[in-house]
Structures are given as structure tokens and as C-alpha cells.
Amino acid sequence: MPDAISSPPTIARLIAPRIALASCLRAIVERSTLGCALPPDQRLNRYPATPFCGITLLFEGELALVQPAIEGAVLRPRQALFFGPHTMPTISGSPGEVHFMTLMFFPDAMHRLTGIDMAGMMDQMLPMEQVLDAGWQAMAAAVFAAADAEARTRIVEDFLEPRWQASRQPELAAGVTDWVRGLAVRAAAAGLGRSARMAERRIRAWAGQPMRSLRRIHRAEQSFFEARAELLHGKVSWSDVAARGGYADQAHLSREARQITGLPPSEFARLSLTDESFWVYRIWN
Prior knowledge:
Elements: E1 11-15, E2 25-32, E3 44-47, E4 53-60, E5 63-67, E6 69-75, E7 79-83, E8 90-93, E9 99-105, H1 107-114, E10 125-127, H2 134-145, H3 149-167, H4 176-189, H5 196-207, H6 211-232, H7 238-244, H8 250-261, H9 265-274, H10 279-283
Antiparallel strand pairs: 1-2, 2-9, 3-8, 4-7, 4-9, 5-6, 5-8, 7-10
């Protein structure tokens, strides 16, 4: 947080799900700026393009999309938003203090749980009640009524675990690298019609986008973590990061970084360490 801000610290937490849900729920993210006198530019929440889908539940304050802007689309207390995988970075913002929780799912897990064709949810954000049934809405109501983050997390996990155990396949993996690799294997092996074209169709239905896009996002994420570690210990060689990440050259890395984060690598790396609105990048691992 910039030195000019003197207020209670913001809360940005990444909560790992219980082991039984590790291949279903990527993470639970909690964000709170209650009691924090943040200036307008620091009340933004910047997110990268992502293969994950999820649900955002708002406890206090207001949230609205800034990029892409949707007129009149404001999330208010005790409302929940379902979002699909995104091919571009997004930004939300608040007029004041805010407190929310986001459940981030592997998209193929959400497909198994609900039957939703994730290709139809690409770059979509909709009120949760338009997408998920009464059981999910009852879970959200219980989360809104819970006393603290621990109770909220337990409600989510207790709701998901029996449903996931009934729908999961034992070969599903928890890590992002293994998930991307395993998704391709499962798509190729599923049922009849095991051609490359049929496998790609399955991947689009399960994850919302083609395998090449998933691999591109994963490669950029791994390169970002590597660059961030180098930046914390000194200067980053972007040409070396590009070479280790399998990019054709530094310009290739820069183009993909802009597509996923909206910024060139050097500016993104600097702001992700110092700007409050980049909080999600600092807690992600």
C-alpha cells in the first residue's frame, strides 16, 4: 500500500479448500477494506484473464464493473454474482469500503457439479440466481448469515463436498499445471469420438476455452511468479524470463502480458508489488 495511506490494513486472504475439494475449488478469496480510508484509484480490484469461474458474494459496500463497464450493474450487500472464465483482464471498483468473498472453481468441476456448458459462460458475469439452482442460493444465504470467515468457509465446503464426491473422477488433479495437463488427457479419453476435434469440443464445454488458451494463461502466470521473485531480490531480466517461459522473444512475452493483465510486463511487475488495486496478484500462488 502506498505510504500516503495511513489507515487500518486492508484484508486480502487466499484460503485453500479442504483436501477433499482441492480438485474442485481452486481457492476462496476474502477481501475487506472496512475501516480503510482508500483514495478512489486504490478502491479498484484488478483481475487478470483467467481460466477459472466462480461466485462473488458481497457482504458490505457496493461493487461495480469498471472494465468492461456495464451501466447499472452494481452488486449490493447480500447479492451474489456468477462469473465465467475470462479471456481479458477485468476491473471492479467500489465507491467506499467493501467486504466480499469469491469462490474460484476449476471450470470443468463447475461443469460436473451443475451441467453448465462453460463455453457459453465465457466472459460472462450474471446474478447467481440466473445461473444456479435453489440449493446454491440457499448456500449463499447461509454464507451471508454466518458470523465470520471461518464459518462462511465451512458452510461452502460442507455444501460442496458431498456433491463433488458424487460427481468427481478420481484422476482429477489439484495443481494448475496438472489440471491443464489432466484436462487434455480426460478429454481425449472420454467416451466415443476420441479424435482431436472431439477432444477440443469437450475441453471447450468443460473449461470454456481451447487448450491453447489455457496453456497460454498458465505460461504467463508461471512467468509472472518467476519475475516477481526476481524483482523482490533485484533486477529482472525480461529476456531471460521470456526464454525460460518458452516465448519466441521478449516482445512475445510483452504481447501476452498485455492481453492477460492489460499492462506491459515491467509496469505490471512494479505495480503488482506497490499498488493496492493489484492485491489479488500479491496473494495468488
